[in-house]
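I keep forgetting this: the sequence line spells out the residues, with the fold written below as integer tokens. I include a record here:
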Amino acid sequence: MGLLDRGPRRTLFAETAWSNLVFLGKWLALAYVLQTLLIRYIPADLIAGIVGGDGIGSILLAALVGAPAYLNGYAAVPLIDGLLQQGMSQGAAMAFVIAGGVSCIPAAVAVWALVKPRVFAAYLGLALTGAILAGIVWGAFA
């Protein structure tokens, strides 16, 4: 009877699917609202002036800003799309995504709880260095 009794598994699947749908829906709604506000109220020339150039400065700034500002992987795509529409360079966008994914506040807090301060500093340093290098390489070929 155990192999044929699928009721509890279907119930668990439905509950998990609903939970995932609500989770993704909340984050995607927030991301699209932020993207809309960004495009509507922040002048494109401001974004282009700060992170729009092909130089290393825009990539450095994007990596530094992306680290604490990154929401999560679900919200990053619409946010980066909005920044790209406003004039952000491809290299800066890559640096923003990589730095944010590694060193966003939730990730940083989790790592801080597990390691010593010197290891944490190395973690952040390597994350930012990798993000900057990836942004430079991506910007050179994009």
About this structure: Residues 7-141 form one domain. The longest helix spans residues 7-41.
